[in-house]
Amino acid sequence: MEHALREDIVRHCRFLHQRGYLAANDGNVSVRLDAKRLLVTPSGVHKGFLEPDDLVMVDLRGKKLSGKGQPTGELSLHLRTLAQRPDMSAVVHAHPPVAIAMSLTKRRLDGILPEVTLSLGKLQVVPYARPLSDQLARNVAHALSHFNAAILERHGTVALGRTVAEAYGLTERVEHASQVLWSAYAVSTPKPVPAKEHRALLRMYEESR
Ligand SMILES: [Zn+2]
Questions:
Q1: Whole-angstrom Cα distance, residue 21 to residue 172?
Q2: CA of 53 to the centre of ligand 1 (A)
Q3: Sorting pLDDT into bands at 50, 70 and 90, what band is 209?
Q4: What number of CA atoms fall less than 13 Å from residue 76's CA on the CB side?
Q5: Which residue range forms the structural domain that includes residue 24?
Q6: In this predicted model, what pLDDT tens digit does every residue of 85-109 receive, in sequence order?
Q7: Which residues surround ligand 1, an ion (CB under 5 A)?
Q8: Starting from the edge strand earliest in sequence, which strands make up the sheet with 56-59, in order?
Q9: CB neighbours of 61 closer than 8 A, spacing ≥ 6?
Q10: For the chain, how many structural domains are there in total?
Q11: I need a surface site. Which of 71, 83, 95, 187 has the fewest CB within 10 A?
Q12: The domain that contains 46 carries what CATH number?
């Protein structure tokens, strides 16, 4: 079980790196090992070259239990978010470039792409807070108290899943949606889905949770 989870994190960190969703040591991933422990990525390790033994085990207060390195500097973001979502087991934080770029434009993102509403509910942007700060962890926990993914203003993305693969998949969705919206805004202003249809899509999302 533990070995499989370690492999799972490493595999998805490689995907994140290969797809350009983070650079070098950026980003971090966590997964619940059991009711009292998490496996998290270490700080200062390149995600493209991460190995299963590099992961750090911590308790739910963030105390290191085992591992060579130190846990990610964004550990409080992972702990806070998972603490309020017992239905979720994994957090993926990455720096996908188009999602970050869209967060700088302050353009409308939500309610334009129906498939995004069906898969994410809301394409939300968490207001800026300094990286590694408690304020960022609080903002993210608030945004993810109901929905499972968000763009962090000027910074990146964060996504929740029952598995690392699910959280990774939502990260892909957010970046893909950002790419589509970026392309649309480059030539025109995309029209939102009509309000009544948007409400129907949101109801479908809620019913599928
Ligand atoms: Zn970051």
A1: 9
A2: 22
A3: confident
A4: 9
A5: 2-208
A6: 999 999 999 999 999 999 999 999 9
A7: 156
A8: 64-66, 56-59, 37-40, 28-32, 90-94, 156-161, 149-152, 125-126
A9: 79
A10: 1
A11: 187
A12: 3.40.225.10
